[in-house]
């Protein structure tokens, strides 16, 4: 019932509101009747009134209830003193808040289109005062919690309606009571909002500001405490409280700006982070909101903020940067102290910035982005015609500590200057010249912008362009540059716009900058200006430390300045100055050398004279004035090393320029040539001291490397070949340096630099002699491959930096070796095989890291040969078989990376052979590449797959190469590493399968003997299997050579021999070939030669061995097809041998064959062996019924007796006739017919016995079977 009642009440309220939208007067009149004096209205009626008050807003229509605000207030006001319960207090508060809010709004700005209001300002003030008295005197002292918050909310809305005199009378009491509420548990937002309404109502009339002044300190302290309160993102009231407090400061700002500034400065004097943050936040709000009223305190504000920055007491940057942005937007940065703010802003643009306190909502990147955006806002200041802080910003262009801020500063200055020029302000006219102590000099600004332009493409050039408009009466740089820069700088800017950092060629771009500087110097043609610029370059070049190119490139500007000069004395003086400067860093020496070489292109003679004087410092007995005194201060070995290194670099660069002149061609004076030769002689005299000093050695090697690189490049571009007579001597010296390096430690780049020198020399003639090249390769291989494993070298490093240096040094060293090997290949491709031959000892090393390095080099060499642009068909690998065997075994190396590298090396070698073959057929290189890409082989195919390697290369081997491959593969069979031995076996069997017939005849017995001898040493099953397969393929292709060798093994055979014979029956082709040869041996009749001491018994040993072989071969299931194919001839041959054995009965007591039996292994005699061969033949052919038949009829006993032998033949014949098909019998008859009239008595009798028995049995058969057989016969 209660829920139903509530639904009815809500529905009734909704109906009243709906009716009120259309008939507001009638609804208000009805409500007035419901309100009785001294009686509280129903709660639901008050709710309806509260809903109707909301209809007064603009969103509810054309201000429906606005004309009835006074009437509704009159309804509610009499019942207000009767309220006692919190529920009624809250609903009355909602009603009165709405009435006061809309009354205040409509009195200030009457709504258009609405009826005339029923309330005036005086009546509203009276109603508001009465309402205030009830709330303040009755509710305020006792209200708590939600009621107090609602009370404060209503009172705050009443302040704007109440009269000023009324507020004056209650001001101090109100302020005291409101500030007291901050100590209670209610939400401070309602207190702050009420206080903000009070302050706004009072300060609308500034004459009452003095009365408020008495409580100003308490108000400021309370409001500041609200700003300092930590806010929670999830607590909206706490955030609104802080916003209201800041708005209260904005209300106080126009009247009490000096008092507020003094209060805030006092708060910022301490080092408390929260107070500093709050004070900065208040300052930002006050400055942004009331800029026109800040004239008295703006300088104090800027100085206060500057003091915070100078004392370094700030902890959080966010409010400080936000305040600086506000100051920038208000134009305060040009005030005293503003430079400190700008300096702080610039420093925050650097990345990484200063440490941000943990827990801050801004990280370093956010600070930098915000600072850069603030800097960009400065370009908008000019729109408001404020003073532009361009002078401050210009001071940050030249200092090197602002490297990362350079781009945003340049962009900002560029925009400022361009807008200033368009507006006719031109703030920079002549300032650089009139105030040199405050602003950078033109020379400093020019060199800074040019250096930064060398790797920051765009911003600095834009600024340079903006700094020098043609119509400027007092240009920044020099008055003679206007027309030149008007032409050149737009061209450079256009060049940049057509490229990005990916497509822009840095060297080409730097050349354009050098050309700009040089042409500028030529346009100025002022020695004093040029000297100041040169001095500025020397000063600034020592300060660059972040990147090596920052040190290197300024020296090229120095050289460009001297190159443009026409004063020879000045050129010599400043060349001497730059040579006397400190050269401790490599980048500095490189830069000085590049400057010297640039000057030498126009002042070559003067340059050589200065170098002649400079090298005299190396000689303590030098008589050159001035230089000898310098030498006295350079006694340390390190300084001597720096001098020698610098001189070497200068000499190589100047020689480079000399070669350019000779090739272009331009003549050089004879005197200049002699001076250069003299310098080279003095340079060579210092080389003998290198061994004693590592630093000198490295400096020498780097200079020689630079020299040989440039000379080699020139020689390569020249039309005529240049002979370099010192090439052999330099290579020999490099070999000596490499050999002197320890193979147990890699601590310096000596061997690396030496190999780079050799690589550079490949472009020069004459080529190295074979013995010199052999010494070089052996030395380099030993020096690099013998180094400890990389893991060991890294483990010995003391820290991460040392580990990175060691790893980098090793990588550079191995790359230098690779470059040298490829260079030797390019120099003479036909000697690639020789280069690989010297790697063989390292490819079979027992140390994994040595094999891996050698295999990496092998793969790179073969890849280089395969990728030669002009492939030479004369490239030969005469030892191809040995090389393939070596690489194939490495494809099964225990180290997986070696297998991978070996597979790639094999593939590259295969590509070489394929290219050679296609080129010899007349195909072009394009078609060769197509054929190669369509090939069936790839590195992945060769990975761990020796058989595929054999198939790929089989067609390319000559007989000699094939033989070498087979013989060398034998050595790998006994390798203790199982994978290698298996790989050798697979390679041997695969290559004999593919090309076994091409093996040289006289090496077949060596191959077979080698395999047989190693069988007893190998017990790994897979390897043995591959060896047996190899013999099988060898016998199939070389039957007449292999079989006699195997038969010659002494009887009884060992297990290896029997296993060999047994495996010969596993492959049909081999089995057929071997069986045919064995049959031939059995069919031969022993003949005693005249005058021979050999007996018949001894001659019969070979047929006996044949029967032993048959016993083994025919016992394998795989031989059935071959046995059935040769069965008639084989049967007759074996039976004929049985007859001869039992009649001659040779070697009665000699066991020739081991047979497994129930009692173990036993030796049997030749006759038994022959019978065993017959049994094995029948079993191997699959004729088990014949075998059983003969056994049942005692056929074996009959065959073993000389007197009953033919009876045994008849039993075998009976069995075959009974169980064979007519076709099989026909085959036997065909074999018997030639023997019926044989000259050999035994054969004739045996064949007739066969024939007679067959005819007898056939007569007994059915007529159809007899007719079928006779038709076949």
TrEMBL record:
Originating organism: Pelodiscus sinensis
Name the record gives this protein: Maestro heat like repeat family member 1
Chain segments annotated as transmembrane: none
A GO CC annotation given for this chain: cytoplasm
Ranges of residues in domain MROH2B-like N-terminal HEAT-repeats: 2-158
Domain MROH2B-like HEAT-repeats intervals: 164-825
Alphabetical UniProt keywords: Repeat
One protein family per Pfam: HEAT_MROH2B_1st
SUPFAM superfamilies, per the entry: ARM repeat
Maestro-like HEAT-repeats domain mapped to chain residues: 849-1075
Superkingdom of origin organism: Eukaryota
